[in-house]
Design goal:
The chain is an all-alpha fold. It is 75% helix and 0% strand. This is XRE family transcriptional regulator.
């Protein structure tokens, strides 16, 4: 069950497939059903957080985007700063977020070296 083809990893890939198909709501429902606590690969957990953030971004759910990006930052701050999708979502948050989220997005952007 610890292989790259275990049930959790397959479920993570299903989230990515749903997002790529433009089915962000379905992807988020799938993501909610996955227990990510046991993912042995930091890279895989990080990638999943970015995928879920992208789903929230497609739905323009800024709180969800921000939460996922902050979790990704906790896991791998250097990777977050270098991930193009994360940088693009952060710019989107800076442009459209409400005051509470805008402050957090600005702080995140600063830590990512974007300001």
């Amino acid at each position: 069950m610890w292989t790259a083809f275990g049930p959790t990893n397959v479920a993570l890939h299903m989230v990515s497939i749903e997002r790529e198909a433009g089915e962000a709501s379905d992807a988020l429902h799938r993501a909610d059903a996955i227990d990510t606590g046991g993912i042995p690969s930091r890279e895989r957990a990080f990638t999943h957080l970015i995928e879920v953030a992208r789903c929230y971004d497609l739905r323009r759910k800024d709180a969800g985007v921000l939460l996922q990006l902050l979790q990704a930052e906790d896991l791998a701050p250097e990777d977050l700063a270098r991930t193009q999708a994360a940088r693009e979502m952060t710019v989107g948050l800076l442009r459209r977020a409400r005051l509470l989220h805008a402050r957090q997005a600005e702080a995140l952007a600063g830590r990512m070296g974007m300001l």
